[in-house]
Amino acid sequence: EKGGFETFMEKEIHDQPQAVQDTLLGRTDASGALVLDELRIDPEELTQVTKIIVLACGTSAYAGTVAKYAIEHWCRIPVEVELSHEFRYRDPIIDEGTLVVSISQSGETMDTLMAVRYAKEQGARTLSICNTNGSTIPRESDAVLYTHAGPEIAVASTKAFLAQITAAYLLGLYLAQLNKKLFSGQIKDILADLGEIPGKIREILDGAEDVKELARSMADATSVLFLGRNLGFPVAMEGALKLKELAYIHAEGFAAGELKHGPIALIDDGQPVFVVMPSPMDRHSLHAKVVSNIQEVRARGARTFVVAERGDQAVRRHAEVVFEVPETQPVLMPLLTTVPLQIFALELASAKGYDVDQPRNLAKSVTVE
Ligand code: M6R
User: Fold this and answer.
1) Is residue 28 within 6 Å of ligand 1 at its C-beta?
2) Is the pLDDT of residue 205 over 90?
3) Does the CB atom of residue 342 touch ligand 1 within 6 A?
4) Exposure check for the chain: N or C terminus, fewer CB within 10 A?
């Protein structure tokens, strides 16, 4: 059942190309236009949406941040992302123009379920991005977009995360199509690039020896920092969460731009810092800014491990180690840059002899508030 792998987590990391591929499958018609019939919401209603609120917890909330960046970029609809348990208890502003998108692997997370129920009571339309057929959250939502990652057994989420991001892209492209915010040719190009992602994930999996070696050499680490900017920010957060959950190491992810507002005080000799680079093609020249963050932490003694796009020459001169991922368009990068960080956490936890499928104190689905 583990498909020849030692742990479910390792298997599920290797399932990721398939998870992304299956989530993309059957979502277009003969002309190449997106059709999300299973949504069960009248497309006309979706064109009335003036605000989106994404609700989720943990890893699923990081997928939500990716969703925000992509949907705002493509659709020009404001998107807020909020942890379900915070949203529910703060008197949030919701009206008929609000679409609440919940993201949950299990579909049973109580915090998210309560938040969705609350949003419905307040008159919002609710859409569930979910990996578990027939679970409670999609059943109670007006619409559902299933991720097709297959059952995820390991407590730490991996393939569901990439499938959630994929589904969020589909939703964003669909809204852009309905609202005519992108030309059909642009949508087709993005879908074509998405279609190449599974092969690119395979390349990362096949070339992961460097990251595994680094992980094995770091079994004594007591703290690891992760920084990223823009779409690299949620990836950094996810890298830190995986390390906490699996290896019980203090790990913190933060937005690279925050560095000088506090976290840089943590840097001293030998502090390991992972940096998720933005694409060198990013339209805001964030690349240069993150390169200077690398220089800043290195100057204070940090060890820098950088996840960057293949061919990113500029970063090579500044980082101790670079883990390369294949090229894709900037907005799709999280589907690739996440993978080395998952492998790092898995390998480090395994080197410490921990049970990666069942980390201490955690449950796969959190069914109490
Ligand atoms: O089933 P859900 O996606 O609603 O679960 C949300 C979180 O509990 C979950 O992502 C958790 O953070 C994982 N252990 C992360 O690896």
Assistant:
1) no
2) yes
3) no
4) N
Tell me the C-alpha distance between 244 and 345, whole Å: 8
How does DSSP classify residue 85?
A: H
* Ligand 1, atom nearest to 365 Cα: 1
Any ligand 1 atom below 6 A from CB of 136: no
> In this structure, is the dihedral angle defined by the CA atoms of residues 46, 235, 155 and 18, taken in order, positive or negative?
positive
Ligand 1: nearest atom to the Cα of 109: 4
Q: Which of 181, 188, 289, 364 is catalytic?
A: 364
Type of residue numbered 47: T
* Mutation probe of ligand 1 site: the residue of 9, 13, 59 with most atoms within 8 A of C-beta: 59
DSSP state of 256: G
Ligand 1 nearest atom to the CA of residue 59, by list position? 10
Q: How many CB atoms lie within 10 A of CB 270?
A: 9
Contacts of 171 by beta carbon, 8 Å cutoff, 6+ apart? 36, 67, 71, 101, 127, 129, 145
Contacts of 307 (CB under 8 A, 6+ apart): 235, 274, 275, 276, 277, 322, 323, 325, 337, 340, 341
pLDDT in tens, 228-263: 999 999 999 999 999 999 999 999 999 999 999 999
Distance 361 CA to ligand 1 centre (A): 13
HSE-CB of 192 using CA atoms within 13 angstroms: 7
**Is residue 114 within 6 Å of ligand 1 at its C-beta?**
no
What's CA 154's distance to the chain center, in Å? 17
- Nearest alpha-carbon partner for 21 in 232, 191, 176: 191
Percent of the chain's residues with pLDDT above 70:
100
- Ligand 1 centroid to residue 369 C-alpha, Å: 13
Please determine, for residue 283, whether its predicted confidence score (pLDDT) is greater than 80.
Answer: no
Active site residue 364: yes
Give the residue from 166, 87, 152 showing the smallest Cα distance to 126: 87
ipTM exceeding 0.90, yes/no: yes
Tell whether ligand 1 has an atom less than 6 A from the beta carbon of residue 245.
yes
